[in-house]
Amino acid sequence: MDYVQQRVAQMASQTDTSSSALLTPLNAILLSLLAYTAYAFLLRPAPPPPSLPAEEPAVVFRTFTPRTLLPYNGADGSPVYLAVRGRVFDVSRGRNFYGPGGPYENFAGRDASRGLACGSFDEEMLTKDLDGALDSLEGLEASELEALRGWEERFEEKYLVVGRLVAVGEEEK
Ligand code: HEM
């Protein structure tokens, strides 16, 4: 091999050495970091915006009469409402209690005031004439009114008031 060939071979081996010097473990790590950063900031598709929670249906405060309250007894998946002393509570969350087949289904869609006060499921606790006067709760003892107050407090904590109960003819007042 003459001098020129020797020199070319020498240069080639020098080039090899310098290119393998570029591939040090440190450079490899830096390169992968760079590649990852480029991917993360430039190439990766943006995550979808967080979906908003489904909107609760708005509560419209309504006026009910005993008759218009009646359908809200939870049958066929309808909401369950009951009234206590003129206030209508949406007790749908307690469907197991008040819905069809529940232990307190007699109160669903009704003015439950007297029944709750007396701790009774008797039919005569409920307003018979749906187009007549509301139960004035006349004749209840202090202890019964106290018990009723207790139920009201429980309902206030647990359920939403969705309306008021009035007698037929009193709707506009
Ligand atoms: C043998 C008698 C009774 C038993 C063993 C009984 C049992 C229960 C139980 C275990 C609960 C569930 C409590 C909870 O998890 O919050 C409950 C709730 C209730 N009970 Fe009774 N109960 C009885 C009598 C009555 C009577 C006589 C009335 C009224 C007439 C009544 C009205 C209610 C009401 C309104 C609720 C609340 C439901 C709600 O949170 O919406 N219970 N009862």
UniProtKB/TrEMBL annotation:
Subcellular location: Endoplasmic reticulum
SUPFAM superfamilies listed in its UniProt record: Cytochrome b5-like heme/steroid binding domain
A Pfam family of this chain: Cyt-b5
Main location group: endoplasmic reticulum
GO MF annotations, alphabetized: heme binding; metal ion binding
Keyword list, A-Z: Endoplasmic reticulum, Heme, Iron, Membrane, Metal-binding, Transmembrane, Transmembrane helix
Lineage, opening ranks: Eukaryota, Fungi, Dikarya, Ascomycota, Pezizomycotina
Species annotation: Dichotomopilus funicola
Domain Cytochrome b5 heme-binding: residue ranges: 64-166
Gene3D superfamilies: Cytochrome b5-like heme/steroid binding domain (3.10.120.10)
Name this protein carries in UniProt: Cytochrome b5-like heme/steroid binding domain-containing protein
Keyword Magnesium attributed: no
Family designation: Belongs to the cytochrome b5 family. MAPR subfamily.
CC terms in the record's Gene Ontology section: endoplasmic reticulum; membrane
